[in-house]
Fold this sequence. Notes:
The protein is of the alpha+beta class. It has helices at 13-29, 34-38, 48-67, 78-81, 106-125, 130-159, 225-233, 245-254, 294-303, 311-318, and strands spanning 183-186, 189-193, 209-213, 216-219, 262-263, 273-276, 279-282, 353-359, 385-388, 405-407, 416-417, 421-423.
Amino acid sequence: MQARTSTSSAPHPLATHYTEVRARSRALAAPLSAEDCQAQSMPDASPVKWHLAHVTWFFETFVLEVFEPDFKPFNPAFRVLFNSYYQGVGEQFPRPQRGLITRPDMAEVWRWREEVDERIARLIASGGPEPALRLIALGLQHEQQHQELLLTDVKHLLSLNPLRPTYHRPWPLSPVAQLASTWIEFEGGLVDVGHDGGGFAFDNETPRHRQWLEPYALMNRLVTHGEWLAFVRDGGYQEPRWWLAAGWDWVRSQGIRAPLYWALPLADHALPTVFTLHGDMPLDPNTPVTHISYFEADAFARWSGARLPTETEWEAAAAPLPVQGNLQDGNALHPMPARNAASGLVQMYGDVWEWTSSSYAAYPGYQPAEGAVGEYNGKFMVNQYVLRGGSCATPASHIRASYRNFFPTEARWQFSGLRLARSL
């Protein structure tokens, strides 16, 4: 396929974005040692080295292999080692054993990234072709997802280290009074849901369609650590009436007593400590609770006399609001207290991903992308629930009102929290 020749001397916007995203990945890995980057803490998490290699594999496999003249892979063995779940591409190295991939070492992974970056830059500078540019844009969104996964996986890894190491310097905390909780009411009706066609979107955000909403209300802010502590002290984890049957089985079989990373004190009046990317910290009652499963979020909502919002309720409320909040770019890397607002919803973007009561399923008329990249979202539309809004680990340019994150009901190593809802 013959590429078009660009007549403009100005950098292609995609080239600029590519450079920024790839540099951000390097910056996120910078505080870590080679040993940190090698280790894998559990099957659901991946080593930092694997994340950095996999996103590079994406560009080499889906872009360069198809569109680069005289393509040659950096190392043919990497095609299997760093394939995540794309059956259409070929075999994958077992996910639970990614920490065993001691070779290539970090230096070789960085060399691979640099070579791929140079080749992608030449492809963009050549002016196309358009399908290649679309795949590069997809690859950048994919890398931003892995930037968030890198942070959450590192947090889980460091939490298991008896030295309780710090990834990032402690954030400056100034005393903030807890924002009072109020209900924000919505009249419901017929609403448009899904991506509106402006800018990038994943295929699972489409097609845009209409849904009917009954009148409902959302809590103005996220549920806090202090409110969750009241649930714990009231015996919330010991009372089966708040829990779905599968959730209660999970609580009992796993011995769950509190959110992930909490260290409960022996004395009931003392505050727990919480492991963060900044090390062990005293629990701040005014910060949003995080690292909870769908089961826990649903149980808390029942205990509160409320419920979780549907994803349509959340999107209809969030769509008119600016996409701003405590996101990765602010470098807090931890949920922060809600600030006073004149009225309305706060913390709709950033801080924590908000569990919804909606199963992750296809929108009416959904069609996955053609080829192996069609495996990106569609094949996971079973036994998962939708989360909305992004977190303190989500890049700001990656999130939007129509974005649909999804995880199984027991997952909680991600920055996941909740906002209460009720029907009117």
